[in-house]
Amino acid sequence: MEIFKKNWTAAEADRWTVHDLLASLFGVVAFLLVTVGVIGAFLLQVWGFVCVAVALLLAWLMYRIIDPKLRAMSDAFEARQAEYLDDLEKTVRWEERSGT
Amino acid sequence: MQEAATGIVFTPLDWVWTIMLILLMIVCGVIFYRLGKRSESDFFLAGRGLPWWLPATSVYATHTATDTPMWITGAIYQCGARGIWYPFFAAWTAISAFVSTRIFRRSLAMSQAEWQNLRYSGLGAELLRGWLAGWQTFMNMFVLAWVSAAMGKICVYLFGWPNWLGVVLFTSVCAVYVLVAGYWGVIMADFQQGVISFLVITLVSCWGVYVAGGPLGIVSKLADLGESWRMNPFHFDGFWGLDSGSFYAMDFITLLIMSTVGGLGMGNFIDWYPEAQRIQSAKSVRDASYSIWAGGFVSLIRNSIWAVAILAFFVLYPNIQSEAEYEMGWFRLGFEYLPAGLIGIFFAGIIAIHLSTVSTHLNLGSLYATRDLYHHYINPEATQEQLVKVGRWNTLFLLIGSFVLGLTMQSITSWLIFALWLQAAGIWIPSILQVVWWRFNSWAYLSSWIANLVMSWLVVWVLPELGLLPDLPNWVNFWLLAGLVALVYIPVTFMTKPDDRDHLVRYYAMARPLGFWRPVHEDAVKKGLIGS
Known about the structure:
The structure holds 2 protein chains of 2 kinds.
Chain A: H1 10-14, H2 18-42, H3 46-79, H4 81-91, H5 94-98
Chain B: E1 2-3, E2 9-10, H1 12-30, H2 33-36, H3 40-45, H4 53-62, H5 68-79, H6 92-96, H7 100-107, H8 112-119, H9 122-159, H10 163-211, H11 214-224, H12 249-261, H13 272-281, H14 285-316, H15 323-326, H16 329-337, H17 342-378, H18 384-406, H19 413-423, H20 425-436, H21 442-466, H22 474-495, H23 501-511, H24 518-526
Antiparallel strand pairs in B: 1-2
Helix pairs in contact in B: 1-10, 1-17, 4-10, 4-13, 4-14, 5-14, 7-14, 8-9, 9-10, 9-17, 9-18, 9-21, 10-14, 10-16, 10-17, 10-18, 12-22, 13-14, 17-18, 19-21, 20-21, 20-22, 21-22, 23-24
């Protein structure tokens, strides 16, 4: 599977793939490193700057991996959003659901 | 010039800064009056059309409240840099951005209570929606009271004002733009309040570091005090243990799992509810994902900047024993050490922090009262004009209720801690299961809430009070409650029927949830609602 896949169809983007897993994983590690790194960097410790740099690198990788998929998914979903909103109002209607 | 009881001097220049920035914040909200009154969707979600950076700033701004620097200061002063893991729960946004945020945004539910109606069916779904709507209306009023009480304390500390004045004054100022412009006012004011507060937090913290001798001065002074371990976020008192006063690796691991894996679920953190509103206000799934991720990222950077400032405060005042005293550490760095002229900017920054939190909870509480109680149960045929009007009345109701609570807050502080327990441990796993497992039904989720209420009351309060259970460390309490509540909702899941299959299929086709949904997926394919 291509990690930096650029062209997604709407149907492909709707499925959960390894790209979602990698984006989540990189996101968590970036959060962890930036939390520790900012403390170190403000105290002028080398490890702090290294952690912040790696966190930013991971955030960039996460963006490269997930952004094309999110764009494809969003475009397809937004095209049908008005129709979905109409359905939503019917689905959650208290009177229809309770049969009164 | 005005001199407070603490000796802090406010020059005319400080007041000019303060008044100018307050006016800027109010005007920024009020000018969106026309947009806010167009519809229910505009009053509560800004028409679902915001680019990612607006809700992202709001996520950050909302979660920077006046009490936040107090309790983060408490954690860092007490535990050193490892205390940074207590506020690390903001990291739930890392996984949520690409899982639960995506699923929730696709559901299009206006609130988490409405989502219960989409995910579940029948009487159980209605009970859940009603319960969450009532609970959230109350909780938002409670949070408003809590942060207003914190503002009251700051004004007593700064100016010697009577407590009620600090509680009422700035929250009322904020209510002006929330009442007239709704969520449009909230989000636009949040943007500039978020920028102002981040700059002020950085400025004051850097000044505190400078006063304490600079970064390397802090490092060497900590070494002189024999407290170098305070700089290490991974300094633990062993892998695990049962001493409630220690910080074990298991505390860190529990907080890490809770905050990151929690991103798979919906409603397992108290923060989820305001974020759910930001998620739905984003103009697309992509914008929703980035707004949540970026808001969490900046919040963690803010926590770490605060942590360094508190290490500086520790170097300046290493022997404070009273929790109430050292919790004010960050405020003391600003008010006692900033030069004249900058104190006004600092105070304006505190007001920005306060207003951004208050505005969110006024509007969010009103959303639950209007959309999930009034619109859903009382008047389903209400016009958009009526809904906006009711939204404004509910905002006013929350404001007045929060004043009453805020002025009696001292005696009910312990109830907030209880409320947070109630929100966290026992329903943490069920809140994930409802997202990832089709068979988990409304009765199971409802039973987990009830069981959590009873169990947390027993484990955290009653049994230790009676001497039947020792005072356990947080990590043990968390897993114990998670396990005990599971003994209730797992049998309930299998003893009750699954939710209506057609209802689940409609939800699945729209939201496309992650996890164990194969039977529902197959039905959706058969019906031609989705591709294979």
